TrEMBL record:
<keyword id="KW-0378">Hydrolase</keyword>
<protein>
    <submittedName>
        <fullName>ATP-dependent helicase HrpB</fullName>
    </submittedName>
</protein>
<keyword id="KW-0347">Helicase</keyword>
<feature type="domain" description="Helicase C-terminal">
    <location>
        <begin position="190"/>
        <end position="352"/>
    </location>
</feature>
<dbReference type="InterPro" id="IPR056329">
    <property type="entry name" value="CON_HrpB"/>
</dbReference>
<dbReference type="InterPro" id="IPR014001">
    <property type="entry name" value="Helicase_ATP-bd"/>
</dbReference>
<dbReference type="InterPro" id="IPR027417">
    <property type="entry name" value="P-loop_NTPase"/>
</dbReference>
<dbReference type="InterPro" id="IPR049614">
    <property type="entry name" value="HrpB_DEXH"/>
</dbReference>
<dbReference type="Pfam" id="PF00270">
    <property type="entry name" value="DEAD"/>
</dbReference>
<dbReference type="Pfam" id="PF24473">
    <property type="entry name" value="CON_HrpB"/>
</dbReference>
<feature type="domain" description="Helicase ATP-binding">
    <location>
        <begin position="2"/>
        <end position="151"/>
    </location>
</feature>
<dbReference type="InterPro" id="IPR013689">
    <property type="entry name" value="RNA_helicase_ATP-dep_HrpB_C"/>
</dbReference>
<dbReference type="GO" id="GO:0004386">
    <property type="term" value="F:helicase activity"/>
</dbReference>
<dbReference type="InterPro" id="IPR011545">
    <property type="entry name" value="DEAD/DEAH_box_helicase_dom"/>
</dbReference>
<dbReference type="InterPro" id="IPR007502">
    <property type="entry name" value="Helicase-assoc_dom"/>
</dbReference>
<feature type="compositionally biased region" description="Basic and acidic residues">
    <location>
        <begin position="797"/>
        <end position="806"/>
    </location>
</feature>
<feature type="region of interest" description="Disordered">
    <location>
        <begin position="797"/>
        <end position="819"/>
    </location>
</feature>
Length: 819
């Protein structure tokens, strides 16, 4: 490892849990010559892990945290002038890079647990690689994890150092079949079995806090210390879970995925893995994120099992069958491909790279998600139209939170609502302190917090209120404001929520007879609804903070969880007059009006008598796309032209015949039909449009002069009759339906396409019914004709049925007298 870093600026190390990647390797590198007395910064994805790793590293030196080894996490740091090794969380590293791109005094950056591919880790790597290439050729970067994409070293052009470490063997045990039931109950039963059958402490993985609490209640009577471990716990409670029990009892630690990596929990010999994890999923269509519970990935399962072998041989119980294990996803997708990219996009704007393509990414942020993020940031006044950071955007980056909440905090500060903004930001980042059924009004949450702060009996979960107050205190410190304990102004709450979520200001829908109160439309266009009987249901305007982003069908409405009354004046101030020309499907008419709008919300309308032809054409084209080409009437000539051109496009692929298929015509409506839509206003008008000239105009010169030669509309048969050809758009041979007697004596099947494509003859009886379908007329006269003659001459005696069809003159009608 030392040699690799001495020779390469970027190195990848892979070693199993317990090998000392996080707790031994950084110390071993502190005195390397290439470091030249500079410091080391090590990135840890989670605050719990950052504190714990710093403590282990300091213990290895026989020092207290804050001397040679320190840490920095959000709102907390323990460092000193003597600190040479800092363990930091992801946002801290990004802030440091933004303030000092050269990382003065830093010789090595370690990205630990990189397999998680968090958004900030990918961003940090991209920024560090640019720093190495442009500013600091001597800066070294070390990427570490127990499980890594095997292609990663090659993708980075970096050497791979592997170590088997000193992990102990872990016996993995599966269930015989996949279980059925609540995950907390399954985990509790298996923990009881492990306490009875196995030695050592037990670490159980559950998807979230709710399941942890339920499992803890189910294990209340076991002879062991049952301790939770998740990110929102206080530091003291987290330490209790990580350290041996002071009374010497066995421990059962019930943890989220936070315990998968970096943390060594003393005494753990048994892991119980529920097989589930809870992650945040972002829906770019709605701009909303939600927590999703899903199956654990195979690499995470390996990390979890490895926790049992950190200090001694262990056992890992997996609560799924061995047959199911290979079916689990191999690894989690990089967060940059799935997450809300607003924070990353703002960081890039501040870095001076509003176009992500300017950086070297392992996986580039998807362009549509970046554009969604830019739209959000423009509404937050954080970037300009070109994507460059604004002064407001620079200020938002000073707050270690999502840009939305940072914008709420800056707005509160500017309006003299700093204490309220601090309380609201803290409440929105934490779980709801009030019990289910408490209604959606955020003002009630602020009042519950302030009443508890005044010393009144808590209304709601005390542990959550304590965390909210701790976070609010941090925001008040940054804003330099004192707490307020009076009931909040509901409109003040609504105004701040509207600042954080401008696309979630909502207007009540018109209440139809027998309709349901509490239905709203968001400025972003989504329909939402309050729980039945909610106190906010009678309001006209709302500001919505949290809602369910899972509408299940067309017209489905999301459910509002947290909202506040919004002063209608806020909407009035934001509204702008816009011209609207749109198609009303129900009436089948074009509606043109001026609308005073806030996004999708229409506050006032006025007739528009001078709408532009372009706007009308665009609206009509949208109507045709929405309802289909059946809104247009293709005359027989227009339909025939399409079929002829489509046939030639299949037959003569290199000649440039245009695509006139339904899909192509819908895609290019504005081009071929737009100029002819000017006078249309109704569904009937569209049906009366003459489409033939528009279609003919799609044929570039000189194709029109070749059309009749290669795909004639009619063919002349031996009797002199001109028979219409029926072309087919799929390129199959055109059909010539002709009475059999009109072809007597004709040997060769007629052809089109310059003689390359024989027609498909539908030979008709005197009554006009097909009696034979062929592309080989010669063969028909020599064979099948005689069977047809035998069947039909008795039925049609007045028509000629000669013994020799080759010599008989072609006839249009009945045979002449005497023949």
């Amino acid at each position: 490892m030392k040699a690799a870093l001495a020779a390469h600026p970027l190195v990848v190390v892979q070693a199993p849990p317990g090998a000392g990647k996080s707790t031994a390797l950084p110390l071993a590198l502190l005195n390397e010559g290439w470091l030249a007395g500079q410091s080391v910064v090590m990135l840890q994805p989670r605050r719990v892990a950052a504190r714990a790793v710093a403590a282990r590293l300091a213990e290895g030196l026989g020092q207290a945290v804050g001397e040679t080894v320190g840490y920095r996490v959000r709102f907390e740091s323990r460092v000193s002038a003597r600190t040479r090794l800092e363990v930091v969380t992801e946002g801290i590293l990004t802030r440091r890079l933004q303030r000092d791109p050269e990382l003065a005094g830093v010789g090595l950056v370690i990205l630990d647990e990189f397999h998680e591919r968090s958004l900030n880790a990918d961003l940090a790597l991209a920024l560090l690689r640019e720093v190495q290439g442009a500013l600091r050729g001597d800066l070294r970067v070390l990427i570490m994890s127990a499980t890594l994409d095997p292609d990663l070293p090659a993708r980075l052009g970096a050497p791979l150092v592997e170590s088997m470490g000193r992990a102990y063997p872990v016996e993995v045990r599966y269930l015989p079949t996949d279980p059925v039931g609540r995950v907390e109950d399954l985990v509790a039963r298996k923990v009881r079995q492990a306490l009875a059958d196995d030695e050592g402490d037990v670490l159980a993985f559950l998807p979230g806090v709710r399941e942890i609490r339920a499992a803890a209640a189910a294990l209340a009577d076991v002879e062991a210390a049952v301790l939770p471990l998740y990110g929102d716990l206080g530091v003291g409670e987290q330490r209790r879970a990580l350290l041996p029990d002071p009374g010497g009892r066995r421990k059962v630690v019930l943890a989220t995925s936070i315990a998968e990596t970096s943390l060594t929990i003393d005494g753990v010999r048994v892991v119980v893995d529920s097989g589930q994890s809870r992650t945040q999923a972002f829906d770019p269509a709605t701009g909303l994120s939600r927590m999703v519970t899903g199956r654990v990935t195979r690499d995470s399962a390996a990390q979890r099992a490895g926790r049992a072998g950190r200090t001694a041989p262990g056992v890992a119980y997996r609560l799924w069958s061995e047959r199911t294990h290979p079916l689990l996803p191999p690894a989690r997708a990089p967060e940059v491909l799935e997450a809300d990219l607003a924070p990353l996009t703002l960081e890039l704007a501040a870095w001076g790279a509003p176009d992500p393509a300017a950086l070297a990414w392992l996986d580039a942020p998807p362009a549509p998600r970046v554009e969604t993020a830019r739209r959000v940031l423009r509404e937050l006044e954080a970037v300009d139209e070109a994507g460059r950071v604004t002064p407001e955007g620079q200020r938002l980056l000073e707050f270690p939170t999502h840009p939305r909440l940072a914008h709420l905090l800056t707005g509160g500060d500017a309006r003299g609502l700093g204490p309220l903004a601090a309380d609201l930001a803290a409440l929105l980042e934490e779980r709801d302190p009030l019990p289910p059924g408490s209604g959606a009004d955020l003002s009630e949450r602020v009042e519950a917090l302030r009443a508890w702060r005044r010393g009144e009996r808590a209304r709601g979960d005390v542990a959550v209120l304590e965390r909210v107050e701790r976070l609010s205190r941090q925001w008040r410190s940054l804003l330099k404001v004192r707490p307020e304990n009076e009931p909040p102004d509901p409109f003040g709450v609504g105004a701040l929520i509207a600042r954080a979520y401008p696309e979630r200001v909502a207007l009540a829908r018109e209440l139809q007879a027998g309709g349901v109160r509490g239905r709203f439309l968001l400025a972003g266009g989504q329909g939402v609804i309050l729980p039945e009987g909610d106190a906010l249901a009678g309001l006209r305007t709302l500001a919505v903070a949290h809602l369910d982003a899972r509408p299940t069908g067309q017209g489905a409405e999301g459910r509002i969880y947290l909202a506040a009354p919004l002063d209608p004046a806020v909407l009035e101030d934001r509204a702008v007059w816009l011209e609207s020309v749109r198609w009303e499907t129900r009436s089948g008419t074009l509606l043109a009006q001026r609308e005073r709008r806030v996004g999708a919300l229409v506050l006032e309308t006025r007739p528009l008598r001078d709408s532009s032809a372009g706007a009308r054409a665009q609206a009509l084209a949208g109507a045709i796309r929405g309802e289909g080409l059946h809104l247009l009437t293709f005359s027989p000539a227009a339909a025939a032209l399409r079929a002829r051109v489509e046939a030639l496009r299949h037959w003569r692929t290199g000649d440039g015949w245009p695509d006139l298929s339904d899909a192509a015509l819908l895609d290019t409506l504005e081009e071929w039909l737009g100029p002819r839509l000017g006078t249309a206003r109704t569904r009937e008008d569209l049906g009366r449009l003459d489409l033939l000239p528009a279609l003919q105009a799609q044929l570039p010169w000189p194709l029109p002069q070749h059309l009749d030669d290669l795909a004639p509309t009619h063919l002349t048969v031996p009797t002199g009759s001109r028979i219409r050809l029926e072309y087919r758009a799929d390129g199959s041979p055109p059909i010539l339906a002709v009475k059999l007697q009109e072809l007597f004596g004709l040997a060769d099947t007629p052809a089109v396409n310059g003689g390359r494509t024989p027609v498909l003859l539908h030979l008709l009886s005197p009554a006009g019914r097909p009696v034979q379908i062929t592309q080989d007329l010669r063969s028909f006269w020599n064979s099948s004709y005689f069977e047809v003659r035998k069947d039909l001459r008795g039925r049609y005696p007045r028509h000629p049925w000669p013994d020799d069809p080759w010599t008989h003159a072609p006839v249009k009608g009945v045979k002449r007298r005497g023949t």
